[in-house]
Each structure stands twice: as structure tokens, then as C-alpha cells.
Structures
1.
Amino acid sequence: DAAAGKDKAQACAACHGLDGLSQMPNAPHIAGQPEIYLKAQLEAFRSGARVNEMMSVVAKGLTDEDIDDLVAWYSAIEVTAKPPE
Amino acid sequence: DAAAGKDKAQACAACHGLDGLSQMPNAPHIAGQPEIYLKAQLEAFRSGARVNEMMSVVAKGLTDEDIDDLVAWYSAIEVTAKPPE
């Protein structure tokens, strides 16, 4: 549920932005990322299959519902990309 | 060097798009990603600190210069994000 995800994303916004555009040089944009990819990364951080100082801690506390809501929110964001000329 | 990176990105485009917008549900957008983040991920896939069926193979063959060029290209892409109303 994207609306619930938007509320939960308040906790992600410091690094990833509420709109999914990175606020930190070592944090990725997550705006509009494909659902399957985003879900797989949050689950990997939670299980330890993927390790990151910050995300390993953050993901530990996420429920399956949290993950689905956050993925719904961030994947619903429309992104455009304009390569350099 | 972004121009050299654009040439090298031909090899990435099948999954990530030349413009960095994902072409596959399990591949992330990499358009406009912060340089530090992108470089860290390519190095992690190359070293094995991060594992992915596809990227672990792709990254094995990358030189430091390849990584810098690819990062220069993809991070130079301008992205916008439009959250749902």
C-alpha cells in the first residue's frame, strides 16, 4: 500500500529522500526502482545476504508488510532520465 | 571520462538502459546515481563483497578505468522524480 509506504518512508527520507532522490553521496536513488529489485534488496539487507553499515540495521526491524508498503511507495514514483548531450 | 563511459555502457544497456533506466524487473535504475555509491557497488561486485548472479560476472572483467568511466557516464545523467499525488 503506497500511502502506508509514504508514511513509513519518513524513516528513509534522510538518506533516500521522500521522493526517492538520494540525499547522501553513499546512498542510492530509489525513486521508481522496479518492485522486484527493491523488495529483493530490502530482504537481502534484512537476511544479511547483502550488507551495508546503515541498511543492515534499518532492515532488521522491517516486517514483510513494511517492505511491501515501502516498495509500493518508492516504485510508484515516476522518474525521467536525461543523459548529457 | 563520461564519453568513454557511454561507449562502455553499451554492455550495460540491455539491463540498465544506456540512459540508466532499468530494462529488467530485477535490475535497478542507475541513472544519476551518486558517483560514490555507483563506484562502491561496482567494486563490491568485482571483489565479491556484493553478490549478484549477473553483476558478479560482469564486474569481474572491469578495470579501475572502466569503473571510473561507467560511473562518470551514469552519474552524469539528470534524473527527476515525481511522487504519486
2.
Amino acid sequence: MPWIRIIGRHLPMQCEKHFSLPFLLHLVYLEPNANQTERGIIMAKYTLMKTEGRAKRAQFETVHGTIQTPVFMNVGTIGAIKGAVSTQDLYDIGTQVELSNTYHLHVRPGDKVVKQLGGLHKFMNWERPILTDSGGFQVFSLAKLRKIKEEGVHFQSHIDGHKIFMGPEESMQIQSNLGSTIAMAFDECPSSVADRDYVQKSVERTTRWLARCKTEMARLNSLPDTINKEQLLFGINQGAVYEDIRIEHAREIAKMDLDGYAVGGLAVGETHEEMYRILDAVVPYLPQDKPTYLMGVGTPANILEGVERGIDFFDCVYPSRNGRHGHVYTNHGKMNMFNAKYELDTRPIEEGCGCPACRHYSRAYIRHLLKAKEMLGMRLCVLHNLYFYNHMMEEIRDALDEGRFADYKKMRLEGFAAGEQK
Amino acid sequence: MPWIRIIGRHLPMQCEKHFSLPFLLHLVYLEPNANQTERGIIMAKYTLMKTEGRAKRAQFETVHGTIQTPVFMNVGTIGAIKGAVSTQDLYDIGTQVELSNTYHLHVRPGDKVVKQLGGLHKFMNWERPILTDSGGFQVFSLAKLRKIKEEGVHFQSHIDGHKIFMGPEESMQIQSNLGSTIAMAFDECPSSVADRDYVQKSVERTTRWLARCKTEMARLNSLPDTINKEQLLFGINQGAVYEDIRIEHAREIAKMDLDGYAVGGLAVGETHEEMYRILDAVVPYLPQDKPTYLMGVGTPANILEGVERGIDFFDCVYPSRNGRHGHVYTNHGKMNMFNAKYELDTRPIEEGCGCPACRHYSRAYIRHLLKAKEMLGMRLCVLHNLYFYNHMMEEIRDALDEGRFADYKKMRLEGFAAGEQK
């Protein structure tokens, strides 16, 4: 019975955290055909557990375990979290989903190499869900001399300038080789200052590309040697800051019955207020019975605002990038660990924090490491920041569970605004 | 009763590994006055447990716990092990003693800062023994424009060129501020190609400096605000490659009844054969009832040869430096993890190795990290190498305990010579 095989495969690690025994029995005995594809294998199942206003508290079951949302995905661009953080560390700091970049992995070590090694999960030794972006964003932000055509994009590698072609089919093929849990559709992310006419045409092409992504993924998932035959596909809403284009696009892609829907093309230069305005406008038009992902966002405050507007998934390089520069998050806003006032400060970054840095090391020691350019300083700050984000998401979920998210959000924002603790 | 206090202080962490209950009772009840100073505090106690030829298997009790020898000390120059390795990691990989550099810590963050923070143990959050070098070696190898006088050395910082004076008293004061378990005497380390006349005069001055170190440490240890009033002093034998100067110097310093004796000025450019010849000549003239430390040595083979010649303590930057360059130690010699042949190799660096890298990650993944310049690659290789050294020392101790060190050494050297495993 394929269900038992699938559940059994993940049971040793995932059962305690994600499955209760009654839930498992429910799956196996009571709904034997629910969420089964024609291949008899469990598909993703999104269960909305609670709402507060537009905020959603849900869980999303995947072949690599269940994701409790709202969730922050920890970014490991080329299959490693920058700052000497490993997947073992990710388990320790409560990471649910790891995010990797398709374009970077295609360039190095190569998605075919990763496939030969059994896929990204085996390569990184990470058993929980992985989301891969489509490469589209990197093609538009990093590549040299790109040329967009109906079939896809011709561009030059940002590393050595060699010519690459990527279209919807290629992006799906690469992500299939990586074997991620969730693949993102290949889209164009137009500039936030692009004119209305350009955005309109771009979004229409993105819709056509999405249909091709869906067809190609279905084909890839049915091949005998595909690593993850249950790979999921999220579509991406675009439309820059034009609410009507956004809404029309949301309506179009919602018809395609995808596994989840992302809001792309935000956090690319527009103000926070513009971002919130677009979310207010478009999220209600995305399917409520599917996960909603706000791409590349953001600060702790952005996340709280995003949750309030119905977002389930977030990702951002801020916590790791800031950590590498000695900027750490606390309940009272960010701290610059290079600051001279920490020279003799024996307290942890944040009193009471359960991260590996705060449990063992002082501000004075971390400042010394950073000033002496010892890698350990970066590692400790990145671990702290990722833990801070993961822990905040846990608190957000608890608050939603208990119907007090509005209060929690207010308390959090006031804390951040209070500024660095003395 | 001060003894019980002292033992009690370290009991929770050290007792299981280092003390047996009968041994503790023996200390407390049967020899109540042994190893007590006039301040009623336990002093270092070196117990020779077994010999095999000239090889020694011993334990060395200190105020920060007992060291089982032969031991390899893991180098954390400025209070951190390079390669994003923390003291928590050191516990995990079986490190007994951490070694830090006096000169580097004097320059940054400053030994007075470290003292205000409660000493190096608190600063790094490391409860086991720490050995600090005297700064002498760095003064002679790193400093600009140095001028050696009877009172000490005037030189310029290798970082910003500012003028520093360091003599025996200054070195002892800095090490006292750091509060290390074992302080090293301030000596001159003459070039291995220095002429006989220079070496003779230098060694005589080093002897005079040693007497001043001893006096100054006694004074510092008796001050009320000294962090570690039980700080130990090891003297350093010098004499370059002149056996008679070495032996004469060993005889002189042996009279001073120090806590341990080091062989310095080796592994500075002479051949391995010369180093072994000097060890053969001089170690028999150092006290057998005190620990013997071969400074800055070396390769796994050097260590095996050193143990055979009666060495207890070793330290070297090789495992961490090589690790940062992707060179890892195995039972079959070193491997260069950048090598293309590891691209698709799903095996760990070494099959059966219990280090954090080998337990979780493949050669293919580590190679990818190194090539992509991800810090995690360095961290994993450094962890592997330090574990390799610590684990080899454990095997050496087991072999000595069981009277089979000669066989173990032969087996090990043959393994290294066999070359990289396929």
C-alpha cells in the first residue's frame, strides 16, 4: 500500500513533530483515496486550521514532511546556508523549510551532478522540505546581456559569461533534477518602475509560461527516473504595482489549480506601504485553500504585516546576510555587534534567547570575533538571526492558534520600535 | 577544606572522564597534604602511569581538570579556532586542551579586556585547560624592527606598527591577565641556521629570563585579584641543533623545578631527522616526572615519533590551516578535497570516522562547498582534521595503556605511506 510506504519513509524523523498517531490512522484507514494521484502516492494537502482576520494558520503536508505555516524559509543559495551553517544546524534552530536557488545550483555544481548524487535532499543531507526558486529572478537580476523571447531567456552566466538558455521547460527540468519538494514556476519579474504597457505584456507571457511549466512538470513527474515524483508547483503572481493587472493575473493563475501561489515582484525597490497595498489588493484573489508565498520578504515587521494579510510562506536573505555583517535581530530591534559599547558586555546578544550563540557566548566575545575577522563571529550571528526568525514564526503560529495574533503583532512592533536594549 | 572545594568545583564536568571515585578518595583522605601550596590549594600533579621504551603515558591534574597525555592541543590563536569552530565544537570533538597566543590576545582584544571579562576561560566559555604561549615566538617571527636587550624585546606590532616592549615580566603579566592554566616562559627562539656562538649567548639569556619568569609568576599568583592563582609555568629548552648546548640548557632549567618543560626552537625549518636527533639527545635530560611539550609539532607522523621519544604535549596549526585549504587527514594520508575525482563521491571523507563532517556529509558535498567558497566547507574540514588528531591521540594513549604502542605506530605509519584511499 503506497501510503504506508510513503508515510513510513518519513515516520522516524517526522512523526513526533508533525504527525499524531490518530492523524496517521485517519490518513491510512479513513480516507484511503484522499490526496492520492493516479500513481497512488500522497499529494500535498493544505489544511487551514485557524484564521484571524485575513491571517491564516495552516499546515501543508508534503512528501518530505508537514510544514506548519506561517513559516519562514531559511535560504541556502547554493545548497549551503552562508556563514558556515549546516543542515544539522538548521535542525537545531528549528528550520522547517530550506530554500535553494535553481540558477546558482545549475551553474555550480550543476543540477545533473546533484541528480546523480540522488537529489538536493541527499546532497545536503536535509530530510525536511526544500523549495527551489525557478531561476527567473536571478536571470533578471544577475545575468548579463539577457534577451527575453517567447520561448524563454537567452543570457550570459554572471560568473564566466557563458551563454545559457532558460525557459519554462528548462527551469522545470533543472528543479526536477534537484528533486526539491516545491518547484517555483518560471516567470519574468519586471522592474518595479516598468511602465504599465510593458508589465501587462510581461504578465501575459508569464501566464503562458506557467501553463508550459505545469505541462512540463507533469511530464517530468511521470518519468521513471525522476527523483521526486511528487514535486509540487507554485505559480507566481506578477503585475508590479498595478493592482488591476495583479488581480486579473491572480484570477488567471488561480484557475490552473496549482499546489500553491506566490506573490512575486515585491520587495524589489517599492516602499513597504506600496507592498502592503498590493498585498491587500491581490491576496484575496488567490486561492484560500492553497498556501500563499510572499517572495523575498523581509524584515520581522514585514513578516508580521504579511501574516496579517494572509501570507503562509516567507523567505529572505536578511537574517543570514545581516548576521555575516554583525547585525543581529532582537526583540528591541537590530544591534550592530561591532559597536564599542559591547567590548566588556558579558550578556548574550539577547537575554533568554535559546539560540546556540546566546546559550554559550557573550556580546564581548562575539564582538571580538567579528573585529578579528574570525569566521566563528559570522557563524554565531547567522545562527542567532535564523533562530530569531524561526522562533518568531513559532510565536506567530502560537498566537494565531490562540486567537491573539493582533495583540502579538502590536507587542512585537512596539518592541522593535523601542530600539536597542541597554 | 580547600581541596574538596577545588575538586568539587570541577567535579560536575570532569569527574566522569578524569577522576574515579577511589582516586578522589585517595586524594582527599589518604594524602591530605600532597600537592598543596601554602595557600592550601591543589597544585599540578603529574602521574606517570605507563612507559614503553621512552614513550610516556601520564595524566596531569590542573585546576581546570585533568589532562590525559600524550595530548594534542587544539590551537585557537586569538581565542577562537579558525574555521568557524567554537569551544562547544571542541567539546564535541574530544579536545582536552585549547592553546591561545599571548601576543595576539595582547594586541586584540587586549589582555586587560580579557581580565575584566573574567579571563580567557570565561571569555571563550571553555572550562578545560588552556595553555598560552609566551608571545616570544610571535615577537621573533611576526614583529617588525625588533631589538633584543637583556631586559626584553622592543618591537613593532605586526598589525599597525605601534611600539611594544615585552620581557619576561610583561609576558607573565599578560598571561596572568588571561588566566590560562599553563603559561609558557618568555624565551628567544633563535633561527635554526643561527651560528653556535649566537645560540650559546641566546640560550644563556633565555635561562636568565626563565628565572625572572618564575619570580614574576610567583608574585602574580600571590596577588589578591589574580584570576588563576594556580597558574602553572613551563620552561622552554632551546639550543637550535647543537646537542651539547641543548643538554646543558636542559640540565640548567631542570634545576628550577618548574611545572613542565617544553622543547622549543624545533619544527622551524630543520629536517625531521634533525628534529628527531635533537629529541633523542635532549629529552632524557628533562625531568621525567614532569610533562614534556614539543612546541609547534606537527604532522601525524611527527607526533608518533615524538611520543616514542617521550613527549606528552603537542600543538600545531596544521590540522586547522590544512582544513581551511581543503586538505584533510585520513588513515591513508592526506586528501585534497578540491580534487575532481570527488565530484560524485557520496562517501564521507573517511569511512567510519565519527567527526561531525563524516557523520553527516559526503566528499561530493564538501568539495562543492569548497569550490563555491562557502565557509561551511572550511568548517567541516577543520572539524574533521581536529577530530582526526584528537582521536589519534586517544588511540595512542590506548596503545600505550595496553603496551602495544610500537605496533600501533608501525601500523599508522604504514597506513599514511599507503597513500590516499581509492
